[in-house]
């Protein structure tokens, strides 16, 4: 692919992604009544990404327009009208649909946007039409794959089809074993089609780095070392933005202007590296610039209240460098079109950890910095260590697990907060408590799952693991997405659901204040909620949500069990599914109304038809929520109508 072709492909991806962001931003603004902080906060990261990408693509006017919008949102105190903001967002949408070139029309659009924001031009004057999701639709993108692999895949499929109908009984006797072997080989071949070389993507990034160096007046030599590494196609696409952030950060923050490079060559060097490392791929952006001033980070962390004086003094360089990935933290003293808002590295960390990877930064003053991303080579298929908690299953990626070691009786039941691994004391944290499992202090931990993160070993105390399984990752639906640190889901061969975890997210939820076995402190009397659902995962989700709001929760797996509980316990609210064995939710609701006409009942179900809603209402339901629209905050708001909750 030529350089011009690579640029056209990148512009197409930029247009598609940016249009989707702008449509979401405008929808947020349309639903808002004022520029409250809660409205502005989620807009900053997508605008920052859009601006940075436009800048690196040489679309200076578009980048300037987004930068001006960022400035307006940063200083707005909520008293300004939303109209000019909406008008400028619509103008950005219009420019994204036009040819992506820097010309006189782009310059006029920038002038008009600045006039709108300054109040010189009324927002209603020939304002571009409101964009919609449909208007953001783009032609399908196509990727190149090897024709010989496609042909082999088709041939092997045909062989399997023929073998599925053997002509003799002896052949049929060995069919199962041969079929499984062929299917396993065929699966490997099919998965290989999902992998693509990383090098073309790195070449595109190198082109942008050179262009950015020219724009900033910084002579730059860019070296690529891809090492033949490959990534799953969808994963590589999702890494484009994080890598672009790192390139921009290195050229703007790291590389000095030529006259300031002292004894170093006038032309700075930027390396973009990729390496396969077992089931993972390591990508790195390395510059020979000024490096990170550790003492400046230390003083800013203390000034911003991120570290107390004693903590700041004792912090290691690794601890301090990790602060650069905190939201809003930046050592840049000024804000320009490229950086200074403290958004770039935070966006990188969130994106990489969302893919099951981790990010690290090392630096030497006056010699440069190295930012490294470690990600799985494929995110669709994962070997997972599965841990059972009651009827629910949780999984950790095997590539992150260094070992699983048995806990001694003292460590298991004696409240140990650390164990010794290879002669080193390692913090021991209860996995059940991190996940918010009810009565976590009563769970008997038998093993420690050890893994590395950020160059350090960590240990999770858990019940015995179920085993190691190769599973197909699935994205989280709206209901399961609310389950704490779970990043994806998978299904075992026997149909059981596994919620997949990422170590980085778990560490973010670590509870430091109490030993892991200490019982919870007595609380004031709480309202009691009965949750009825035949799905263990949904039960666990709702229990976690309601207990986090300081509600006492009891559970039942169907209507019959719920009625038995209601006969012996007083409750203040019932939350019930509809489709359940033995007795469904509608029958349960009718029976509850016979027993107590005042007891509030909320139906939470996958059935969202008007007929089902009407039936629930006629039987006396107080609220009706559809699981596909499930949102934690909305659920708590509905519950708060009937009992007191803490949010």
Automatic annotation (TrEMBL):
Reactions catalysed, as given in the entry: ATP + protein L-histidine = ADP + protein N-phospho-L-histidine
UniProt keyword Kinase present: yes
Chain ranges of the Response regulatory domain: 528-642
Database matches in InterPro entries: Bact_Chemotaxis_CheA, CheW-like_dom_sf, CheW-lke_dom, CheY-like_superfamily, HATPase_C_sf, HATPase_dom, His_kinase_dom, HPT_dom_sf
One of the record's GO molecular function terms: phosphorelay sensor kinase activity
Domain HPt: 3-99
Annotated Histidine kinase domain residues: 148-379
Lineage: superkingdom: Bacteria
UniProt keyword Ubl conjugation, yes or no: no
Gene3D superfamilies, alphabetized: 3.40.50.2300, Histidine kinase-like ATPase, C-terminal domain (3.30.565.10), HPT domain (1.20.120.160)
Coiled coil: none
Class of the enzyme per the UniProt entry, highest EC level: transferase
A Pfam family: CheW
PTM annotation (4-aspartylphosphate): residues: 577
Sequence ranges assigned to domain CheW-like in this UniProt record: 381-512
Keywords: Kinase, Phosphoprotein, Transferase
EC number: 2.7.13.3
GO biological process: chemotaxis
Phosphohistidine modified-residue sites: 48
Protein's name according to its UniProt entry: histidine kinase
């Amino acid at each position: 692919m030529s350089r011009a072709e690579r640029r056209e492909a990148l512009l197409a991806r930029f247009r598609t992604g940016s249009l989707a962001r702008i449509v979401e931003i405008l929808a947020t603004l349309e639903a808002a009544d004022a520029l409250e902080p809660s409205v502005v906060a989620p807009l900053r990261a997508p605008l920052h990404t859009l601006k940075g990408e436009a800048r690196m693509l040489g679309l200076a006017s578009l980048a300037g327009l987004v930068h001006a919008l960022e400035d307006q949102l940063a200083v707005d105190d909520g008293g300004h009208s939303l109209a000019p903001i909406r008008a400028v967002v619509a103008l950005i949408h219009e420019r994204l649909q036009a040819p992506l070139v820097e010309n006189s029309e782009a310059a006029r659009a920038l002038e008009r946007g600045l006039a709108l924001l300054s109040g010189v031009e009324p927002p209603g004057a020939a304002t571009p039409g409101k964009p919609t999701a449909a208007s953001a639709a783009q032609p399908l993108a196509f990727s190149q794959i090897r024709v010989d692999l496609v042909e082999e895949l088709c041939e092997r499929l045909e062989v399997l089809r023929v073998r599925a109908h053997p002509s003799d009984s002896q052949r049929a006797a060995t069919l199962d074993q041969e079929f499984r072997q062929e299917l396993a080989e065929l699966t490997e071949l099919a998965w290989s089609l999902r992998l693509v070389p990383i090098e073309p993507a790195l070449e595109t990034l190198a082109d942008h780095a050179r262009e950015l160096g020219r724009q900033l007046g910084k002579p730059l030599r860019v070296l690529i070392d891809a090492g033949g590494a490959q990534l799953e196609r969808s994963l590589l696409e999702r890494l484009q933005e994080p890598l672009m952030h790192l390139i921009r950060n290195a050229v703007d923050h790291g590389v000095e202007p030529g006259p300031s490079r002292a004894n170093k060559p006038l032309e700075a060097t930027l390396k973009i590296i990729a390496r396969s490392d077992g089931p993972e791929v390591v990508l790195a952006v390395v510059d020979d610039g000024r490096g990170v001033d550790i003492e400046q980070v230390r003083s800013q962390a203390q000034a911003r209240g991120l570290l107390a004086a004693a903590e700041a003094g004792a912090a290691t360089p690794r601890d301090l460098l990790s602060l650069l990935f905190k939201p809003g933290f930046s050592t840049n003293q000024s804000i320009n079109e490229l950086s200074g808002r403290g958004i770039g590295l935070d966006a990188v960390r969130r994106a990489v950890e969302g893919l099951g990877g981790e990010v690290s930064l090392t630096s030497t003053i006056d010699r440069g910095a190295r930012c490294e991303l470690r990600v799985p080579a494929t995110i669709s298929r994962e070997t997972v260590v599965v841990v059972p908690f009651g009827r629910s299953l949780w999984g950790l990626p095997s590539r992150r697990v260094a070992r699983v070691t048995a806990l001694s009786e003292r460590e298991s039941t004696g409240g140990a907060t650390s164990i010794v691994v290879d002669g080193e004391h390692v913090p021991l944290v209860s996995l059940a408590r991190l996940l918010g499992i009810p009565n976590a202090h009563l769970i008997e931990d038998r093993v420690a799952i050890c893994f590395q993160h950020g160059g350090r070993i960590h240990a999770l105390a858990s019940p015995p693991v179920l085993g190691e399984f190769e599973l197909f990752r699935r994205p989280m639906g709206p209901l399961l997405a609310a389950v704490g640190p779970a990043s994806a889901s998978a299904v075992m061969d026997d149909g059981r659901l596994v919620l997949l975890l990422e170590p980085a997210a778990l560490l973010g939820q670590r509870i430091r204040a109490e030993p892991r076995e200490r019982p919870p402190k007595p609380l004031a009397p709480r309202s009691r909620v009965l949750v009825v659902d035949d799905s263990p995962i949904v039960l666990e989700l709702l229990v976690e949500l309601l207990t986090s709001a300081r509600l006492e929760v009891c559970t039942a797996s169907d209507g019959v069990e719920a009625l038995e509980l209601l006969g012996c316990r007083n409750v203040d609210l019932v939350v019930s599914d509809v489709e359940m064995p033995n007795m469904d939710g509608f029958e349960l609701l009718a029976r509850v109304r016979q027993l107590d006409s005042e007891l509030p009942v909320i139906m939470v179900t996958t059935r969202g038809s008007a007929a089902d809603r009407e039936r629930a209402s006629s039987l006396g339901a107080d609220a009706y929520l559809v699981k596909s629209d499930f949102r934690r905050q909305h659920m708590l708001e509905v519950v708060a109508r009937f009992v007191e909750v803490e949010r």
